[in-house]
Amino acid sequence: MANAKYVIVANWIKEQIDKGKLRHGQKIQTEAQLSKQFGYSRQTIRQAISSLINEGLLESTQGSGTYVRKSKRSDQASRVIGVITTYNTDYIFPRILGGMEEVLADHEYAMQLAFTHNRVSDERRALELMLQSNVDGFIVEPTRSALPNPNMDLYHSLIDQGYPLLFINASYQTLPTVHVALDDRKTGKMIYDYVFERGHRKIFSFFKYDDIQGHLRYAGANDASKLHGEQINDDDIYWYSTEDFEKGIFDQRLLERLKNYTAVLCYNDALAYQLLEFLEKHDMHVPEELSIVSVDHSDFIGKSNIEITSVVHPMQKLGSAAAKTMLEMVQKPSYNTSVDFQPRLVEGNSVKNIQIQIGGQDE
After folding, report:
1. Whole-number Cα distances in Å, 322 to 32, 224, 264, 317
2. Which residues of 246-263 are buried (b: 16+ CB within 10 A; e: fewer)?
3. Residue of 227, 82, 208 whose CA lies nearest to 141
């Protein structure tokens, strides 16, 4: 019951901050005053205050009292949101940015854009420039989200200064921040389930190792394989990086390797359509000889006679949700609700149904 009481007090203080009744740098009521107001013990009040100090909303000064944590940002709002993404190609990014811009414009906010090209040095430069511009908050697509990042000092500085910080598509696992993303683990499970339910047991996968989405999609596929009583082995996976993809990963040795499988799970459509082109050049037919399932359902769809079965990336909806979440974070410093879009698969003609022999008879 004590826990429930301290949560009530903590939530009340958060509400006062969100409504602007308690401002950055303002001293809150004393333990004695709050104890009298709520009729709770001072120990309960102390527990509530301690929890908010741990969240970074309050700070205590010995001999002086407890204050709403000061924001080091300028008090003058710029009505500009800094948006940093890895790329701005004709892939999924224009529609993500379009969704953001529409919502922000409706609320009389503008975007300051920067692109990292998936390079941590460019990410650092973008963060530093936006800090100088005094944007009201940051929407960031992480750069190489699965690898150690040398820009953590800047991110911690943003958090310490009270900037709203929101990640899209992925997040850095070491930062306690809000995100808006496709549920990648469920996505990995969905694409594995799809080919398994169509009779495939020899399943190969391509996953990116420098983005956390690749790890999560692999984890989801592994979840599915175990539920089906199967096991994904090391030889069943090709892990690749951004540089590997840019240089080209398909060669004769990989082609020979793929001939041992009936279905391939692709990290995204960019890779899936490169694979499709590679297979066609080497007279390996999809889906007759090899089935393909992917993620993003992007603009690559329709550029071949084969339309790849693919999980839909929310694109514009994700951008809209990110902008709405950021506006909530700007207005309410304690807002911390992430959004995970549930995967939805659109069928093309890239997966063949095959029959499994059980006891000499077709399943």
Report:
1. 41, 29, 32, 8
2. eeebbeeeeeeebeebbb
3. 82
Residue given tokens 């398909």 in the structure block: 250
CB-neighbour burial class of residue 182 (10 A; exposed 0-12, middle 13-18, buried 19+): buried
Burial class (CB in 10 A: 0-12, 13-18, 19+), 100: buried
| Per-residue pLDDT tens digits for 216-230 | 999 999 999 999 999
CB neighbour list of residue 261: distance below 8 Å, 6 or more residues apart: 202, 203, 204, 236, 290
> What domains are defined for the chain?
2-68 (1.10.10.10), 80-182+315-342 (3.40.50.2300), 184-313+346-362 (3.40.50.2300)
Q: Which distant-in-sequence residues (6+ apart) come within 8 Å of 251 by Cβ?
A: none
Cα 56 → chain centroid: 23
- CA angle in degrees (0–180, nearest 5) for 337-18-173: 30
Per-residue tokens: 63? 């001999």
58-61 vs 65-68, strand pairing mode: antiparallel
> Which amino acid would we find at residue 326?
M
- Assess contact for 183 and 337: CB atoms under 8 A: no
Q: pLDDT tens digit string along 136-176?
A: 999 999 999 999 999 999 998 888 788 999 999 999 989 98
User: Which SS3 state, helix, strand or coil, does residue 109 take?
Assistant: coil
252 contacts: CB under 8 Å, gap ≥ 6 = none
Tokens at residue 313, please? 């990336």
* Start-to-end C-alpha separation, the chain: 56
